[in-house]
Batch of 4 targets.
Target 1
Amino acid sequence: MPFDLAFVWAGLIAFAVLTYVVLDGFDLGIGILFPTGRSRDDRDVMMNAVAPVWDGNETWLVLGGGGLFAVFPLAYAVVMPALYMPITLMLLALVFRGVAFEFRWRTERWKGVWDAAFFGGSTLAALCQGIALGALVQGIEVQGRAYAGGWWDWLTPFSVLTGVALVAGYALLGATWLVLKTEGPLQSRMRGYAFRLGIVTLAFIGAVSLLTPFQDPVYFQRWFNLPGSLYTFAVPVLLMGTTWLLYSGLRRQYDLQPFLAALGMFVLSFIGIGISFYPMMVPPGLTIAEAAAPDESLGFALVGTLILIPIILAYTAYAYWVFRGKVRVGDGYH
Amino acid sequence: MEHLSAETLARAQFAFTVSFHIVFPAFSIGLASFLAVLNGLWLRSRDATYLALFDYWKKIFAVTFGMGVVSGIVMSYQFGTNWSVFSDLAGPVIGPLMAYEVLSAFFLEAGFLGIMLFGREKVGDRLHMFATAMVAFGTLISATWILSVNSWMQTPAGFAINDAGQFVPVDWLAIVFNPSFPYRLLHMVLAAYLTTAFVVGGVGALHLLRDRGDRTARRMFSMAMWMAALVTPVQIFAGDLHGLNTLEHQPVKVMAMEGHYDSYPDGAPLILFGWPNAAEKRIDYAIEVPKLSSLILKHDWNAPLDGLDSVPDADEPPVAIVFWSFRIMVGLGFAMLGVGMFSLFQRLRGRLYDAPWLHRAALLMGPSGFIAVLAGWVTTEVGRQPFTVYGLLRTSDSLAPVAAPAVATSLLMFIIVYFFVFGAGVFYILRLMNRSALTAMPDDDDGPLRAAGPVSRPHKDGEAHHAV
């Protein structure tokens, strides 16, 4: 089936999730790095580096959830109860870090509280997202049309590993974004963090990649199966390329290249996960076709989506362009 | 622990999170439009009072909107975590509507919010005005989609049911424009505007009580009272239409709202107050006006009206909650009308800024919109019970297979976090409101005013008597 609505939608949902991961990734990453700001000015600048755009970034998460509900309601209905605790904790963590953007400007006495909320919320949200990913990779038990496992099934050493890995990856994205948006001592410190976080992130990508094939023999087949392997092996090769770009950019003190390289690492890791999953929507047993809503729903939603997504990308790009350049102390409307 | 079943807990959790959530959009829908109006008036008149008011309410909007966003993200996942069977079955119909809400509204609001808050200097007045209008437009689009979703759950249309038991779309126009949608949309958008008008009016009144000469307070109070006087009657009319629509499509809900346990073959009374007695199926201590309910609902004194005795017990909503929440909403609506008429009276006498009792009344009514909105939603949502999709899917059959302890744990976490975080947010908003918008006047304008200081006070008070 070359043109299949469910398949197109799987691609669009994957695109929304990837966009979310890279966009909110760097602003969650700034939250994770928040305690490394040494002065109030440092922290003000760090937060203002994302303040005008964070809300749009997080909207991709709503699209991921809402889109899944719309076009893969069965997948949504199975995954959410299975990941009940990590999802709930992530939502609560996002509450804390989201309100911190406004609250910390509204108080002197409690500024520290909301700074801590920004750090804690960002870190916990990243951890929970990583854990949710790991739990999904390990597979979700389904009977009939419902989740059939317990409410602690998601907690395994592997899911904790993917959780910590995502925290490190987001911190890398955050550090490289701050290399782009700041200057002076703060920027050079961020360059140093990016250098170390790059190594840590790569180590985690390696560990997760090595362990993934053992979570389910199917993954092993999808990766090591000629001639498909010729394509799949492009992923690690390209990953090495982006790593080289990250470090050459950091060493030559370029502003933009490290961020783009870190984005590249995320995109490639995401493609890697996609290779493992396809054609499953929810491993091990729920396929894209089975999880999809009827074609009437898919078609109706698709028409508007194909019109609206380019418009959204255009004005989102415009908002980023308006707030381009370095963020300085005292910027902002507060 | 029989009464604390997973279903009860999940319902409590949804009621709790959605009640907290609705408060913020109810305010930000109106406030976004108010900001767009203020900015437009500032650009047209170059009267610094409008700019000061824009900057003043902008900060309050930012805090409110932030809380609305984070509590809204929770809602978009709550369907799956706690109501997964409902999501699976109703997803093909309502899911695309919610996806459209995200695509056409949330991105628009979020994309232009940054420019509206931070960007006036960066993009210039025209684009800044455009961004402000887009944020306001986005809040209205958002309301449109989500009310279509909610209305479909109340008055489902345009669907079929497939082999898996899913609701599947047949006619999208019939789904989106389902029977109760236009009424609900109008009623809710007007409610959001009135909520905002009374908050703005309350804040204006507070500062007028402190200083009658505060020209920012005068301006906002006057604008808010125009809204109160003009929109409240429209809202009462819209509410009546909505009620008649409910009678047509969800008569059982109206029976609960009216407290009609019994059928009245020749004219039903309007029960003003009373105590619903669920065990005996009657309203104790009822104060009622004979036949008035039939007149209101059927436009005929003697029209017969069925009561809950015509409905199986298993299909009835909890009467007491619906009965009371409806009366709270209607009572507040008429209190709003009273304030609006009072303000019109004082305005005609030329004493709008010189009427402490009006100001006290407006201050007291400041939060009334929130209570009315919550009471209205309780009426319509509890009145839909025991169904999620009215008449077709029972609430008890919509539940996710999640163990009660998990739901209890998450409910407890939501309660603690929401009260802590949103409590702090409300405190910050109240503190912002406690300051006069005069402090937000631009420096070049603020200087001379302050320099004039106490000397100008008597003059400004004198002005009040001439103002109309």
Note: Chain A has a mean pLDDT of 89.
Target 2
Amino acid sequence: MDLQNADCILIEGSNMAEAHPVGFQWVMEAKKRGATVIHVDPRFTRTSAVADLHVPIRAGSDIAFLGGLVNHVLSNDLDFREYVVAYTNAANIITEDFADTEDLEGLFSGWDPETKRYDPVSWHYEPPARMSDDDVANIEDVQDGEPVSHEAAQSDTHGSGGSPLPWKGRRDETLQHPRCVFQILKRHFARYTPHMVEETCGIPASEFAKVADALVANSGRERTTAFCYAVGWTHHSTGAQMIRTSAILQTLLGNIGRPGGGILALRGHASIQGSTDIPTLFNILPGYIPMPLAPLHQSLDAWVEDDEGKAGFWGNIRSYSVSLLKAYWGDAATAENDFCFDYLPRLTGDHSTYATVKSMIDGGCKGYFIVGENPAVGSANGKMQRLGMANLDWLVVRDLQMIESATFWKDGPEIETGELVTEEIGTEVFFLPAATHVEKSGSFTQTQRMLQWRDKAVEPPGDCRSELQFYVDLGNRIREKLADSTDEMDAPVLELAWDYPVDETGEPDGESVLREVNGTGPDGAVSSYLDLKPDGSTACGCWIYAGVYADEVNQARRRKPHWEQDQVAAEWGWVWPANRRILYNRASAAPDGTPWSERKKYVWWDPEQGRWVGKDVPDFVPDRAPDHTPAPDAHGPDAIGGQDPFVMQTDGKAWLFAPLGVADGPLPAHYEPAESPVANPLYPVQSNPGRRSLKTPSNPINPSRSEVFPYVFTTYRLTEHHTAGGMSRTLPYLTELQPEPFCEVSPRLARERGLVHGEWATIISARTAIEARVLVTDRLRSLRLGDRFVEQVGLPYHWGGNGLSTGDSANDLVNVTMDPNVFIQDKVGTCDVQPGRRPRGPALVEYVAQYRRRAGVPEEGDL
Amino acid sequence: MVDFLGWPLVRQLTGADRLGRGAAAQSPRSRDLEPRTRSADRVVDSVCPFCAVGCGQKVFVKDGRVVQIEGNPASPISRGRLCPKGSASKQLVTSPTRVTTVRYRRPHGTEWEDLDLDTAVDMIADRVIATRRQFWRWEDEQGRRTRHTTGFASLGGATLDNEENYLMKKLYTALGAIQIENQARI
């Protein structure tokens, strides 16, 4: 909603008008008010059609483009200097040991070629000139300690802010010190020139200049620019760094924490934000508390040690963690037994979904719950997914419809080719029908962190049940079956706080679960995470959600119409944390606490009341004066200075340079996708050096710059379908609107390969070949990179063999090569395209094998 | 007796609607139609289950069945609008291909079989217990405590409620299961 306040909106890595159509109305509102809308995307889409400017880009080259913009801002002194000096780490001085990609031919200091990992010790801030006792202790830690582990995706486990930093460091606020972040940034991005952008992205310098001018003209005291992105950024082996580049740019322009600013992630499932906050993810517990790691965390103290007491709200980690343990194990969790810390399983490495699928193929994982997801179509490299499922002992699928992940044993693509034989597959499959969103009550968290409660409208039919009911029931049965066990491994199950009363239909009360998530103390439901205690007197299922049940009221159920409220609409639903709509909104005021401008007034210091006031809940200590300087020995929230708006960061500053916490470098650098038609124009290092490869025969990788696989493919969504199609290919209305898969190609590519509009084409990678109808269109432009063209093929990925509308799955083409921070795959790859339908049956296997042989891919895969 | 005066052509020629686009062409059936939203017994507040924009929905219920789902005009996010998916969401509930009974495929089986829900959940509980134990690990190679199992995994959560995600992670964690993932990873 706040997008309507933007003066310029840059949408990149997202086709917002088609994938998030109703959210897009706020872009159009902004445009009506005079905002400039820019769309940077490989394809011309309905988003481009209403944008002021569409800039075609080669898929996967976003860091080069954004880096070019950073360079433009830095080399022309166009940054919002007052904001940058006060609110970012631009002034921090980095240790002498740091070396940049400029010095090391595309790598940063700390690279270990053996392990292919970075040790970030040389990326640290220079310690402060006058050191406190804490600083001295911290220095010893850094010098002696083990490097931060990224084995278990620890990059995103440091609260909703950054990772713990040992000290605030030395600063040079003139930004002239050669080793200060600002100067390092300038040197690092100097090679990202408009010419280099043209060579890398296929964007002419004239188009680049238009974007740069619009961003700069619409940033500063009076104006703000917003960025929108989606999986066009996250689905890359450099995805986290793409988003970091945009964060660096937006921070330099002073567009974070202000109305009409920010970087908006447009997420794709109703509660994908909620399932990240209250995670069904391997590396974190609720509220981004890290899962303990076996090598480091063998006690409660060791588990919270890194974060405890560090400046900012994350410094209260012990309160959040102990309260979570109390929510899990209730009365069994006491101070004497470390609040049952030992009942938490410890991680020993990468247990993410792709590593798990490989483990299934290798026989190391034999049971699988698939709950409202369809990996046979929705995950990269569908064959790998299906081979994994075919090697299980048992599989439970819970869904509304008979999805491909439930029927792979009967009619999957590998059954057709003979790679799998039904009678030989030993997997026992349970399909349990699920309740729809109107057949249960509960809350979703949408993409701007807003929880909205749904009331139940009708009872689910037949055997359909909510997941709430299924899991309560399953837990009850397991506990009954183990009730007599004295085995130590069963103690966490038996002592679990698992008393969920059910109604006459067997349905548990969702609001009582939400109340547990909110947290309780001696006085009932807590009203904020500030109420949580480290002594076991409070229990809280997810500290960042504390307040959603404040005053014993389900705040997520609030539905005050927008016409009865101001634009912030604070009484509709509830936004974490603390019903705060814009994060880090202290930055919407100048260092002295006054609004940057009347036009962009949002939260400011009221000297008479001695408080922060404004249109939103201030994201700051409410009575902390702008001129407050914390005592040197202050801890946690007390250590936040009056001019430190980034209250979740341990130094209160936005990190232009990440001294810690990022696996693949303190600054973004452009590397090519694992499969690319070109050599990296920027560095001698071709692909992200820290990328995670998954070596298994079903995941062969196309060699880069291969004449056999000369084209780039990229996958995308259509308005009328949803992700892997289980909720859309099964609905008559949507199927009628968008009945079959297709591939978009440029007229030039169509001529080159003899593709005919409306006829069939076969698209081939080292994994498999799929077929789709041909759509020849100018929407895909042939991109000129130096003296050559790069052609891109657009593939909607919604289809599979089941449902009312069927077709080959585009994700079967995609390889699994992952970003080292978050273990998310590249969605781009290389391919060939040929006219006509693909071979059927065993002939398809041989057809793809021939391609692999011609391209020089080892026959046994990338081993 | 045929009422010639009631014929649409006569009405068009004699009445005010000379182009035959309104009253002249209207049949008694179309005149008496009323929207399902008007005859509903109840209207329930909901939220669209597709993408993460979080558009408000009004669910219209008659005789215990969903008869229509429309956008909620009061929502500050969506102001009453729904996209094609949200507009089609009634069919998630009423789809004729929706599966409403448990289906079971025995190992090496070639067809689905019926299975009682209670039996199915009980069988699943047995399998969780057995597989958990089979792949249980107290320690890693260096003797550091792990207290986990890699025997079974879970995938999904982004289409479910917060409360459901919470209980899933809580139960799995107590069981020592660590390969818990959802759509946020893909």
Note: Chain B touches chain A through 117 residues (CB under 8 Å).
Target 3
Amino acid sequence: MTHWKYKRLSISFMQYINQIARDAMLFLSCLAPVLYGLFIKFGIPVAEKFLTGYYSRKEVLVPYFLIFDLFLVVLTPMMFSFASSMVILGEIDDGITKYMSVTPLGRGGYLISRLILPLTFSFVVSIIVMNVFSLTINSFEIIIALSFLSSVLGFMTTMMVVSLSANKVEGMAITKMSGISMIGIILPFFVLTRIQYLAILLPSFWMAKFALEGKITYLILCVMVSAGWILLLLRKFMKKTM
Amino acid sequence: MIQVVDLSFSYTRNKFLENIGFEVSEGEIFGFLGPSGAGKSTLQKILTGLIKTYKGQSIVKGIESKHFNNDFYENIGVDFEFPSLYEKLTGRENLEFFGSLYSKKLRNIDELLEMVGLKNDEDKKVSEYSKGMKSRLNFIKALLHNPDILFLDEPTSGLDPNSSRDMKNIILQEKKNGKTIILTTHNMTDAAELCDRVAFIVDGNIKALDTPHNLIMSKGASKIKYTYLDGTEKTGECLLSLTSHDKKLQELIESNRVLSIHSSEPTLNDIFMEVTGRVLQ
């Protein structure tokens, strides 16, 4: 039966992949991190060369390279999160989410195939993308840590979209709004006073603090704040799909 | 096959389902009848393990509903009122996908499609199906893995009379094949025709539970209505059991003046109204 458990999960996950592959918008959104990676790897150094020459300064964009890297690391999970959200909302509309609970896949299996497996997949893709395109981060351990945190953020965003929206149109609107929660990435770079701590409920803020200062405490805080949001949203989602 | 004892559940602090109790035997068609919001679907959700926070007992095939594991669903088939199908897949692709989630040997997909008249439309996307076609596809999806227990929620809803007749024949055939069937409906005609026993559910309580025939006979009585000419056309009425006491009727029969005579029985719908004080259709 354990063999069947894994088989069902893989069948359900393949169905998720098929749905993305059949939808041009979702398919292209999953390619976005590579396009952005190409832009920052090759476009930003050219822009830096132009700007330093133009302003006759030693460096213009270099102090902010880490911000480009942080957006790169969150982009992969965010795009996968968007794809997951759209697939789940489509399946809620079609009554599939509820039906899966009365099949041997079960509600747990369904959620694993729609949330955990895509998250794991995006974690791996994120590591690869960061290794290939990152401008500043060379440490493999830091890349793994940041990819993990960004995947948790992606999970939280998926939960936010599927819990708070009633259909795909609302889902797209909430996906755009969820982008606001990424403001936490730039705050530690530009707001240097204690005012920055107004963003303590944004996991992206703690991720940026971790990337800047390398303290494990910030990594733990990022996970804890994300977990709090995820649990809150998961409860709402479970009620919605019962 | 199913035992429910002293079952209570509520979505809020207010009471909803209260002290529900019944048993369903193997091979029986058991109907839940009641108006919208009466608690029928909630009861079905409890029996299928979707709701686990109930009080009392709900035992299906010897297992408490709240403790079902995923493999248990190899044995039950559920046909929700609203279709749960991938709109972008074809009818056949839907059946193949959902079938692949079961480890049991599946029934022949071609035969199932043929049975509900969808064989010629198997390669159409479900988004192109009519409401009735979706209902029929949804129904055979529940039969695909040949479950022991079928939960059917308004299975004839939205079907034309021919499709509805076919669907009812299939349900009766599944009963002959030994399946236990739980039917949730507000269609009294379907219930009277299909169910071995029915439970009237109103406001979260079972108001009556028996065979359709017993419910009709215990609460109502057959009557005779007749018309005759007495200057103008007139109508008379008496209970079937008291025909010999109706002197007017005897007189009319002896003088061959009866224009028409009909017997009538109360319907399940009449009994439902009498027992619950509510109207279904």
Note: Chain A touches chain B through 23 residues (CB under 8 Å).
Target 4
Amino acid sequence: MLDDIFFVGLLASTFRFATPIMFAALGEAVSQRAGVLNVGLEGIMLVGAFLAALGAWWTGTPWGGLVLAVAGGAAMGALHAFISITLRADQIISGIALIVLGLGISGYGYRMTLGGMSPPPSIPSFSPMEFWGLSDLPFVGPIFFGQHILVYMALAGAVLLHFFLYRSRWGLDVRAIGQSPVAADAVGIRVQGTRYATVIFGGAMAAMGGAYLSTAQLSGFVENMVSGRGFIAIACVVFGRWSPLGAMAAALFFGMADAAQIRLQSLNPDIPFQFFVMFPYVLAVVALVFMAKSSRMPAALGVPFQPPR
Amino acid sequence: MGPARDAGAPLLELRGITKCFGRLTANDDISLRVSRGEVVGLLGENGAGKSTLMNVLSGLIQPDQGDISLTGKAVSFASPRDAVAAGIGMVHQHFMLVPTLSVIENIALGDRSLRLFPLDLSGIRDRLAKVSNQVGLEVDPDATVGRLGIGEQQRVEIARVLCHDARILILDEPTAVLTPEESTQLFEAVRSMAAAGTSVILISHKLDDIFGICSRVAVLRQGRKVLDAPLDETDRDALVHAMVGDTVSAPHGERVSPPGPPIVTVKDLRLKRDNGATLIDDLNVEVRAGEILGVAGIEGNGQRELAECIAGLRRPDAGEISYDGEPIYGSMTPRRLRQMGLRHITEDRHGTGILPDQPLSENHLLGHIRNPRFNRRSWLQRHAAKEATASIIDQYDVRAAGADAPMGSLSGGNQQKAVLGRELADGIRFLIAAHPTRGLDIRTIAFIQRQLLELRDAGVGILLISSDLNEIWRLSDTILVFGGGNAFGPVSAETTSLPEVGAWMAGHQ
């Protein structure tokens, strides 16, 4: 029976660990599909985590925190959009600036507000869902019915974005823009405007991932609490071949790797725990090595578009 | 079509269109009228301003001056969408299709009348079927565009324009990429479109296209309209004259001095394809100073491989090539060969000849970067590079906004002239010219051919690779033919005949 408990725990925490990565990866998948690479997810997630904690404390509800986080993430997305779309600067460099900016804003902001209070304020957070007691079902209960609402939002988001990309006119525009902006422009699609929208959306999604960390997984902000999940999210986009459902699957895969490494740590106390912590990142590198040359990569990814007028 | 039936006004009228790019006036006060159901040819050399004019008409670029009216009403196109909405559809020379999308998705792209969600393409599917039937353009709506051949992709482009109810269809060099049968099919389709009331503007520099389907022709030269007449009131000579201006003197092969000692010697050369099949076996040939060796043949019979071997870029599978008596393989690098005067006009201009995003002056540095004029103790001499480029622009009549203009902003012919100027500069002794005039207009072709003959007379050895048999025949002293897996010759141009060379090209002994 120990095995059952082990696997139920593993699968349940797979969803928990996957959710912040999934939010960020879904938003990134859409903006990369439109041709804009944002390597600054890490910074946006940090700002999202900080603003969620601040907003939750302010308004007294985690939903208030989520709204503030989304607004902040969208603003950082808009900044990246302005630099990389309007100014046509290098997207990688702009993204790296976002990482540093996010580290700074969240760390400084935290110390100026919540971090400076004594006693430390208690941050309202999301509590696990209650589906009329379904979470007490054996095995499936804790895995599927005992999660935070943000977990279900991320999974639903993946399905919705799938329909958005492949079954809507906007999705068709987005796919065309990332592949061949010149062709899209020639038929009158607003290339720059659509790119702005996807990058702002990507920022908002990354911030939701951050909000999950500070108002669901934990109740409160810790400096640098995102600890590399923003980069794993970028790997998920590649690994998931630039599709929302693929990115979801990749995020679940990394979530499971993270859940597994924590359990392996406690089962093997002789091995330094840092090796286990490395595990998901090593997987990310391996995944990129095998997938990076995929022909599914949007042809215009990372290339600023200059309208011929 | 409502008010479109106004009898007096033409369907489309352009008045006084002017557009400058930097110092270059691409369109200078051009006016053009097109009536309903008319097929108008727009003729001109590369860089004459045809594409600029049509980009203005399709909303891709804004004119500096001039106005456009449709059925007598003034219109202005701030973007391609405005032009499409007004019924103007353009089929670009480089297709504006998204290769990863299906045919039907490409046609639906940019159609604002479609429901946002769920995307329903059945209406477009019906329209495509109707249009295909009407003009005889067959396309599979569910095929991925990137997997289609060039001719099919063009059909997709045309079908798309027609699906969006275009009243005016602009075809930019449509036959440049087509086989003769495909061209015939295209002309059939254009005729049925015109019969159905669609006006067509056909951009071309081929007279056969114009005489094939047009009812009227306008000729542009250096940004100005120089002729505009119904086709039955003009003839080929008049059009050529209007296109080219002063007469182009045909190059002539009269030699001034006998050839000198051999520069490049090829002994017992064997070349294999990348997949291992033998391309050329036991080739023995030499190119002397002051001689043009013409290599004729259908492309893909080993010409490119031979050029690369001589340029030091590819190791032969067997045999020896020497330059000035020294074996190329073993002791020489491409850099050393360049220092010894070997120059190369590569066949793939975009891939290996130029850097399209860099300015002309930096393109000029390619291969000259070690020249002390441009490089003082490893410091780049930008000013010297710009001066050198400016003199090339003058000397070779390169139409460009200046030495700072990006190479990619030039037309193909002007790019080739800039490449020629670069390769010929500073100590040329041997030139590999691979398809130097392919895709260029008559005037540029004549200019480049004249340059090659002048080089020969100045004592340069030239390996000329061309699939244009006339070019080989007019310029070469010695002819080598690659055909059907064999090499024929080399033979002196004086001892062979055009039919014989043609037969060799087809692989007949």
Note: The interface with chain B takes residues 163-164, 167-173, 175-176, 179-180, 182-189, 299, 308-309 of chain A (CB under 8 Å).
